[in-house]
Amino acid sequence: MCPPALIPYKPKNPKTRLSALLSQEEREQFAAAMLEDVKAAVKDAMCSPVLVCSELFDSEDVQVTIADTDLSGSLNAILPQNPGPALIIMADLPLADTASIRRVISTEKDIAIVPGRGGGTNAIFMKEPHKFHVDYYGASFLKHMKIAEDAGLSVEVIDSFRLHTDIDEPWDLVELLIHGTGKSRAYLEDLGFLLSVDKGRVGVRRGQ
Amino acid sequence: MCPPALIPYKPKNPKTRLSALLSQEEREQFAAAMLEDVKAAVKDAMCSPVLVCSELFDSEDVQVTIADTDLSGSLNAILPQNPGPALIIMADLPLADTASIRRVISTEKDIAIVPGRGGGTNAIFMKEPHKFHVDYYGASFLKHMKIAEDAGLSVEVIDSFRLHTDIDEPWDLVELLIHGTGKSRAYLEDLGFLLSVDKGRVGVRRGQ
């Protein structure tokens, strides 16, 4: 089994909530490094990465480009075209590893869903993608549970902090500096980011 | 196997970072409800809850009371007294469920460690507690990995968002309202807490 891993990706001006710590160019390089980490993990788990973008960009990756629509619209246009199982996984999950992705794609249920922080959805594995559709706005985890229920599909919720931890806010960088092992952690360290402990609480600071 | 589950617990004025949302009395009741959820989960996983407190309080639970020392000191006084395996698990993990705790206590390694948000340690299972000691200040997860390594103990890091999610900050309540199933979620709902979605971001608000 070598299902496609659809990875939505925004190369230009991503991760704006990190703007206090990283310039636009740095955020673009950091997002690219996180994407590399996710791609490495899905490949190790025997999935084939396919980037889903709103515009074509310079990359050797397989890309599906859909303009003039949002994330959910793009994915819902692609899903019915997959004859076999498909995975959707976000590009900002640099703690993703082979073991956690294998737990997702080896589900015995019709669908496996990985909740993200704050009610989001970080990954969805569908054995029959044409029976499902996505809706990423707001508390998407609860929406996706409901969509699966309405479609009569059985669901496994995957209990993984590695896939639960999407990197959006400055304090999320703590998780990456502690648990990361790939290119995005190395990129942060090259920029001089370090863990800092103040009154017992752990944060990050930028040295150099 | 029915190992003790040592649960550090502070009945008076807990969870001060939730003070903007909850009065002291409410925080005490909320902490008690989270403790009930953790106790229910460890009992279902065939562990025996033992509360570790700095002062005796009114409860039917088995308690070990150690005054005049901090959390690490208390636990380090207790650990060598355990002839068999022991679990330490925090009281503010209301998403803990039987499956996640079973993954911890069924490790094939000498020790299983569950990292918490922000570099903390939410649970530790030790087959031979006298060979280990804890140090909860700061980035305790990294410290505990080092302590295990220095002691020559093999370690499994448990990848669970249910056990990773300690409830400290207002935005953590989102996780409880989405993924919780026990008394602490019900307590929040009784107080009128609801999920709210603003510009696609999920938060909580207190109605009524």
How would you describe this protein?
2 copies of one chain form a homodimer. Chain A is an alpha/beta fold. The first copy, chain A, has one domain (4-168): Spore Coat Polysaccharide Biosynthesis Protein SpsA, Chain A (Alpha-Beta Complex), CATH 3.90.550. In chain A, 33% of the residues lie in helices and 21% in strands. Chain A is built from 7 helices and 9 strands; from the N terminus they run βαββαβαββαβαααββ. Chain A has helices spanning 24-44, 71-78, 98-105, 140-150, 161-164, 172-179, 183-190, and strands at 4-8, 48-53, 63-65, 86-89, 111-115, 121-126, 155-157, 193-198, 201-206. Chain A has a 7-stranded mixed beta sheet with strand order 3-2-1-4-6-5-7. In chain A, strands 8-9 form a two-stranded antiparallel ribbon. Chain A is globular and about 55 Å long. The model of chain A has no long low-confidence stretch (mean pLDDT 94). The A-B interface holds A 99-100, 115, 117-120, 137-139, 141-142, 159-165, 171, 174-175, 178-179, 195, 197, 200-202 and B 99-100, 115, 117-120, 137-139, 141-142, 159-165, 171, 174-175, 178-179, 195, 197, 200-202.
Please give the count of helices of chain A.
7
Specify the CATH architecture of chain A. Alpha-Beta Complex
Most extensive contact: A-B, 29 and 29 residues
Query: Multimeric state of these chains?
Result: homodimer
CATH class of chain A: Alpha Beta
The counted number of beta strands of chain A is 9
Structural class of the secondary elements of chain A?
alpha/beta
What radius of gyration of chain A results from the CA coordinates?
17 Å
N- to C-terminal distance of chain A: 46 Å
Helix content of chain A: 25-40%
Uncertain regions spanning at least 5 consecutive residues of chain A: none
For this structure, the CATH topology of chain A is Spore Coat Polysaccharide Biosynthesis Protein SpsA, Chain A
Mean pLDDT of chain A: 94
CATH homology superfamily of chain A:
Spore Coat Polysaccharide Biosynthesis Protein SpsA, Chain A
The main pleated sheet of chain A reads as: 7 strands, mixed
- Side by side, the strands of the main sheet of chain A go 3-2-1-4-6-5-7
Order of helices and strands of chain A: EHEEHEHEEHEHHHEE
Write down the overall geometry of chain A. globular
The amount of beta strand of chain A, in percent, is 15-25%
